[in-house]
């Protein structure tokens, strides 16, 4: 049986790197509990090296004894790792720049130094924690032969998982699928894909990585994260189940509630058309669509909204027809003779023209009650 893809959530780390976002202790606990209860595979809960306040929040999460692995993010620096060990987390992610651009122009070092530093940090971490993720920062711009060299060294060191990061979000799905298959096949260590959404392809790239053989995907709730954000948990999870037909441990019915919680804590409004969690994504306005779903929801729905904690709804626009009004009245147990329907339809179309926008079901029912 094919191994299930791991969903590794980094809302409390990379998500919190979104401009203007900062979670306090209770908010971190609330989000962590909700994700753990929903069945997430792993939580990356922060960066202890940021200081004592952050480290304390992480220690408090560890003390909850949630049924999920907690890891922290660290540079390939011993001081960062020491701060992580003190929090009591089960695992650490050790991130090292892998592109020539970042090795030379950010670290101002060379490949030899990087491999030596990696070896020292991983060897020490093996003594302190039970799980190690090696993060390959800017891997999408790195030399593939050098990445292979790092993977071979990581295997010798006993690393548990390797994270391939498309740090600038510059990859596209075909490139991910065709160029990374050999990497996935040759690695004895499970690979994780960490996508950024700078060009709007984070979810697509994550799915392409899974199809290429990657065993884990980094996600954040709502796609929250640095710059344009990361792969959205809800999009990846639902697409894994309904597009790739893969087993998903996560309870998808909890996605909407979790998204609303994170949106409130982050002070970020969910766009109306945001896949899975947006206000409008299960609402039909076109009379052709409304007619279609009246006959069979599968005509215009890939999966039932109830499966992700949502409900189906309709709104009525300029294309509203007689039978759309009949359906609404009938669904509410109201009279729907021809004269009543014609009057309501005319009033509805007049109101739509006056407001220059579609009307929600409750607005139309308000017209009925005021007549």
Brief overview, please?
The chain has 14 helices and eleven strands. The chain has helices at 25-38, 52-62, 78-87, 100-107, 111-128, 144-157, 173-186, 202-212, 233-242, 255-266, 287-295, 322-331, 338-355, 361-370, and strands at residues 6-9, 42-44, 69-75, 91-97, 131-137, 161-166, 191-195, 216-219, 283-284, 313-316, 359-360. The strands form two sheets. An eight-stranded parallel β-barrel has the order 1-2-3-4-5-6-7-8, surrounded by eight helices. It has a three-stranded mixed beta sheet with strand order 9-10-11.
Commentary on this structure:
- GO terms for molecular function: acyltransferase activity, acyl groups converted into alkyl on transfer.
- Residues 5-256 form the Pyruvate carboxyltransferase domain.
- This is Isopropylmalate/homocitrate/citramalate synthase.
- With 371 residues, this protein is α/β, with parallel strands linked by helices.
- It has two domains: 6-266, TIM Barrel (Alpha-Beta Barrel), CATH 3.20.20.70; 283-370, no CATH class.
- It has helices spanning 25-38, 52-62, 78-87, 100-107, 111-128, 144-157, 173-186, 202-212, 233-242, 255-266, 287-295, 322-331, 338-355, 361-370; strands spanning 6-9, 42-44, 69-75, 91-97, 131-137, 161-166, 191-195, 216-219, 283-284, 313-316, 359-360.
- Strands 1-2-3-4-5-6-7-8 form an eight-stranded parallel β-barrel, surrounded by eight helices.
- Strand 3, helix 3 and strand 4 (91-97) form a beta-alpha-beta unit.
- Helix 7 (173-186) runs parallel beside helix 8 and helix 12 crosses helix 13.
């Amino acid at each position: 049986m094919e191994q299930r893809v791991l969903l590794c959530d980094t809302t409390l780390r990379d998500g919190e790197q979104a401009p203007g976002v900062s979670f306090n202790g209770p908010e971190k606990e609330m989000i962590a509990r909700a994700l753990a209860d929903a069945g997430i595979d792993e939580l990356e809960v922060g960066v202890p090296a940021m200081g004592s306040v952050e480290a304390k929040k992480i220690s408090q999460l560890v003390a909850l004894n949630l049924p999920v692995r907690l890891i922290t993010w660290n540079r390939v620096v011993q001081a960062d790792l020491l701060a992580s060990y003190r929090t009591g987390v089960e695992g650490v992610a050790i991130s090292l720049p892998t592109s020539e651009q970042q090795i030379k122009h950010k670290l101002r070092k060379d490949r030899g130094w990087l491999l030596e530093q990696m070896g020292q940090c991983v060897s020490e971490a093996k003594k302190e924690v039970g799980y190690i993720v090696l993060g390959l920062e800017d891997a999408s711009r790195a030399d593939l032969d050098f990445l292979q060299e790092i993977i071979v060294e990581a295997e010798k060191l006993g690393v548990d998982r390797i994270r391939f990061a498309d740090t600038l979000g510059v990859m596209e799905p075909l490139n991910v699928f065709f160029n990374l298959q050999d990497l996935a096949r040759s690695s004895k260590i499970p690979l994780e894909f960490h996508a950024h959404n700078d060009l709007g392809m984070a979810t697509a790239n994550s799915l392409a990585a899974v199809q290429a053989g990657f065993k884990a995907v980094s996600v954040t709730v709502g796609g929250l994260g640095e710059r344009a954000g990361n792969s959205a948990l809800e999009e990846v999870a639902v697409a894994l189940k309904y597009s790739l037909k893969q087993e998903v441990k996560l309870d998808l019915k909890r996605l909407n509630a979790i998204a609303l919680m994170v949106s409130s804590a982050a002070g970020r409004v969910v766009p109306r058309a945001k896949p899975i969690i947006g206000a409008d994504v299960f609402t039909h306005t076109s009379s052709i669509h409304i007619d279609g779903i009246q006959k069979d929801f599968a005509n215009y729905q890939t999966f039932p909204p109830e499966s992700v904690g949502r409900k189906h709804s309709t709104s009525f626009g300029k294309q509203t027809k007689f039978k759309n009004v009949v359906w609404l009245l009938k669904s509410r147990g109201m009279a729907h003779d021809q004269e009543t329907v014609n009057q309501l339809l005319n009033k509805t179309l007049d109101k739509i023209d006056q407001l220059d926008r579609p009307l929600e079901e409750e607005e139309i029912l308000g017209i009925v009650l005021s007549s």
